[in-house]
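Hi U.,

Before I forget, here's the chain from the pilot set. I'm dumping it here mostly so it's searchable later in email.
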Amino acid sequence: MKIVYFGSDVFLSCFDYFLQEHHILALYTYHNTEDYFTEYSIVEKAKLFGIPVHYESISPEDIIQYFTKENCDLFFIAEYNRILSLPASLPQFKGINVHSSLLPKGRSYYPIEAAMQRELTQSGVTIHKLLPELDKGDILAQRRISITDEMDSIDTYLYCAFHVREMLEELIENFEKYWAAAKPQREKHSYWHRPASELMTLHHKICQSDALAMFRKYNSMVQVEIGGKWFHVSMLTTGIGPLQKDIFLSSSLVLYPITDGHLRLHIHPMKESV
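Structure:
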């Protein structure tokens, strides 16, 4: 198959599968400073194999070009931050999307973080046909994933990626059968919005257990204000030693006092997505 791939490092195993077994025409990706998984590895692999990398949004004209001039077989979307503007009429177009929930429940740009906010003990991953409407295409394959107390949001993403690789191989090897048997999403569920900012914001009056619980759910979406500037937190550990004020040990490492000790935070400045 000839594939145009849209995504980041979350489902890197899928990109590896297409590299080994098929032909990737182009990679469309993005960078977001609040994401734990960036695009670093997938871009490096694309460059190694001479695959064009695009950070800009794809136009309807380019979509038509891929399917009419370059004989593309499939658009594959796996953790991409934009909705594609699909042409109104392109009979040969086929696209599939990977979503980290058990659709139709869990339509969201933040499905795992929102699931953990809701204290769910079970979620899953879905591969579905691509439609202009977000996460509403017919379901091609689906698996359940337990969320245990030992797991954080990153663990859950990794389990999704593990299962999707197996699902993808089976689907692509039997593509026409899966495509014809896809099941419509008939149930209606509300959209899971981004967790409220206050749920992801550290402050000096928080305790260790609440800080750890916050980071378990949201990881690098956790934010903190220090000296009038806002930062994302990429790593958080705790200590019991008393501390009177914030201490920067480097530009990216800070000791942060809380009610029952301190937090050791790896941080980076908040920036707009590009």
